[in-house]
Design brief:
CATH class: Mainly Beta
Oligomer: single chain
Structural class: mainly beta
Number of helices: 3
Shape: globular
Distance between the termini: 61 Å
CATH topology: Neuraminidase
Length: 442
């Protein structure tokens, strides 16, 4: 009891100290777009901003809000930390129920961060499971819900290539034989490639995206920590996107300097690879904006040496000027500390024409900005292969009037009927957003 009281007191002290670290000076929209405002780092320096939205979850019947002309329904409830969604060719939906692997707390910083994440609803035991949802008659309601695959190790990414289903655990890519229409996978998985996952493995998610010709897998891997605290040598094959040749098993780094890339997708008009990236912390409320960007083979995007192109991060002591000189400025900022994780391009036929070819982004929400940011799904219109307008709020209401978190959106996908699916890992729900019958179709 004494230890628990001391722990609570330590957390209260940390939160009180962090609360003295001011508030954001920029409006959220000023840290969005192709030319966001990039100000000076917070003069308070290492004093962290700790401002998590307390997770209280949805009341019965509660749900987020979509724009006029759209309808939101709970596609599946009572899930266990649903982090990602993947739609199979026959319309079945795979829901990845997952969280970070167990790790040992080391030091007061790690302990405080764990308490903050727990308050935000982010610390739960990983279910290590993929659940299948089937809407057999196409009426928007799930008739079949089964355990598709379990016994995994903090999984996230899923990709079907031919009759082979690939799943990315935090430490390896596995391959399973898949039969169209199957409601479970029964055969053993075959390890295709090991992935970097040594301690502390702070960014544990590994997403997958198959190349259009089915010959390669692209794998997003986040950094160990915020700013290569353990040395840049420990970041080998991390903070970037890997390319796996399925014929030979060869694994190489395709792009680097991406602190925590998660969502990936092929832009419909030009076929470029895009990713959403969760940027660094501890520079203040307004730095650094998360972003989405096209990914160039061999490209370097700054982390940890610089941010938003060539703005040098002086905290990093192993500076590599030759890399900073060629650091690529991201295409489109998505707001400071919004934790922009999910990404999908809309290619369905059910939404109004303005959404065609644009990107939906799941913003998990901040824990280190005052006021909070994110906690919503935004839409970014595209034209000619590039963002062509301001980001628009699409799915909101994840925060209540007290600023508490009812849910946190993560993975996003478009289902076989053209509806948007959103994994809500705090609400334990997959939401489905459809266009009302009166909305003009594309």
């Amino acid at each position: 009891m004494l230890r628990q009281s001391a722990s609570a007191a330590a957390l209260l002290c940390a939160l009180t100290l962090a609360a003295c670290n001011g508030t954001a000076e920029l409006a959220p929209e000023e840290t969005y777009g192709a030319t966001p405002k990039i100000g000076a780092p917070d003069p308070n320096g290492p004093i962290p901003v700790l401002n998590p939205a307390k997770a209280v979850r949805w009341s019965p019947g509660g749900k987020p809000t979509a724009p006029a002309g759209f309808v939101v329904t709970a596609y599946a409830e009572g899930l266990d930390h649903p982090r990602w969604v993947y739609v199979l060719p026959n319309g079945d939906v795979l829901v990845v129920e997952s969280n970070a692997p167990p790790r040992e707390e080391k030091g007061i910083k790690a302990w405080v961060q764990k308490q903050v994440m727990s308050r935000a609803g982010a610390v739960t035991k990983s279910a290590n499971r993929i659940t299948l949802l089937r809407d057999a008659d196409g009426d928007g309601e799930v008739e079949v819900r089964t355990k598709f695959l379990d016994g995994l190790n903090s999984p996230l990414g899923v990709a079907l290539v031919g009759d082979q289903l690939y799943v990315a655990n935090t430490d390896a890519v596995l391959r399973y034989a898949y039969t169209p229409g199957a409601t479970s996978v029964t055969g053993p998985g075959v390890k295709v490639a090991d992935l970097p996952a040594g301690e502390p493995n702070g960014h544990w998610t590994r997403n997958l995206l198959a190349s259009p010709d089915g010959k390669k897998l692209f794998i997003s891997v986040g950094s160990h920590g915020n700013l290569a605290e353990g040395g840049i040598a420990l970041e080998k094959n991390r903070a970037g996107i890997l390319e796996l040749d399925l014929a030979t098993g060869a694994l190489r780094q395709y792009a680097s300097g991406l602190r925590n890339p998660v969502g990936m997708g092929w832009e419909p008009s030009g076929g470029a690879l895009w990713t959403s990236v969760n940027e660094r912390d501890m520079l203040g409320h307004d730095l650094v904006p998360d972003y989405m960007t096209s990914v160039k083979e061999g490209g370097f995007y700054g982390w940890p040496d610089s941010y938003w192109g060539k703005t040098v991060d002086t905290r990093f002591k192993e500076q590599r000027p030759e890399l900073v000189a060629r650091a690529i400025t991201p295409d489109y900022a998505l707001g400071a500390h919004t934790a922009s994780l999910g990404l999908t391009f809309y290619e369905g036929a059910a939404f109004p024409a303005k959404y065609q070819g644009g990107a939906f982004v799941g913003q998990h929400g901040s824990w280190n900005r005052k006021p909070v940011s994110g906690y919503k799904v935004v839409f970014v219109p595209f034209s000619g292969g590039k963002p062509s307008g301001k980001a628009e709020d699409f799915l909101t209401g994840f925060l209540n009037a007290k600023g508490e978190s009812l849910g946190r959106p993560v993975g996003v996908a478009v289902d076989a009927k053209g509806a948007l699916l959103v994994a809500d890992d705090v609400g334990n729900v997959v939401w489905r957003v459809t266009a009302a019958a009166s909305a003009p179709a594309s």
